[in-house]
Design goal:
- The protein has helices at residues 3-18, 24-30, 36-68, 72-90, 103-106, 111-131, 134-150, 152-174, 176-214, 221-224.
- It is mainly α and 232 residues long.
- The two termini are 23 Å apart.
């Protein structure tokens, strides 16, 4: 695998793991009533945070885990448990209401202040762990090891892939307005509940993968790798 292949693979993986399209209904609920400038500002801050956070883990993630004596398997299990709780919350009727904010309606001209307040509110649980979950962090850490083996070009390609994933996410969130108008409140609630179910299943998959890595032979390969051929 060369530097270009590594960068492309990381971009595809991060786009799927950040899942900006799937997270649109939640972002729409979190910025309901916001102007286009306010929504663009919030999405810019969140996506910039995602790029910086993933870049930080690209350079230091494996070292941090080693410093604290945490295995990648334990990290996957812990992240899976956190995602499971979040998925269960998403299945609740009032999940979208927890993101509601009246500031956008009462102070539509305050772009910078609104973006700052919404960003602080959405760091957890939206940015982490909904967007930047154990899957995204694990992918970055694993790819960092590959990049170190290939050389500096692979490191640059990986950083470009992280930046590109953040840019695409920014574009998707900036287009939330038209999409939320099409879906409506009922449509967004349905999508979020379905995503909650998927997130619960994904969380269980992370936990199974972590346990299988920590305790070889505990589970069959069908449970930990249900689609080894890669066909989706």
């Amino acid at each position: 695998m060369d530097a270009v292949d590594l960068g492309v693979n990381l971009f595809v993986a991060l786009f799927a793991l950040l899942d900006p399209i799937g997270n649109l209904p939640i972002f729409a609920a979190a910025t309901a009533g916001a102007t286009l400038r306010q929504r663009v500002s919030v999405s810019g801050l969140i996506c910039l945070f995602a790029v910086v956070f993933l870049g930080f883990f690209f350079f230091t993630g494996l070292g941090l885990l080693q410093f604290f004596g945490i295995s990648l398997a334990a990290f996957r299990i812990a992240g899976g448990i956190l995602l499971l709780f979040l998925g269960l919350d998403m299945a609740r009727e009032d999940f979208l209401k927890m993101f509601a904010d009246a500031d956008a309606v009462t102070d539509a001209g305050d772009v910078r202040g609104y973006a700052k307040r919404r960003f602080q509110r959405l760091i957890v649980p939206f940015a982490i762990p909904l967007m930047i979950g154990p899957g995204a962090i694990s992918a970055v850490i694993i790819q960092a090891g590959e990049a170190e083996r290939i050389g500096p070009a692979a490191t640059l390609a990986s950083l470009a892939a992280i930046s590109a994933a953040g840019l695409v996410s920014f574009v998707c969130f900036s287009l939330t307005g038209p999409i939320s108008r099409v879906l409506g409140d009922v449509g967004m609630a349905i999508v979020v509940r379905v995503l909650g179910l998927i997130l619960c299943a994904l969380a269980i998959q992370f936990i199974l993968a972590g346990l299988a890595e920590a305790i070889p032979g505990m589970f069959s390969s069908i449970a930990t790798t249900p689609y080894p051929s890669g066909g989706h």
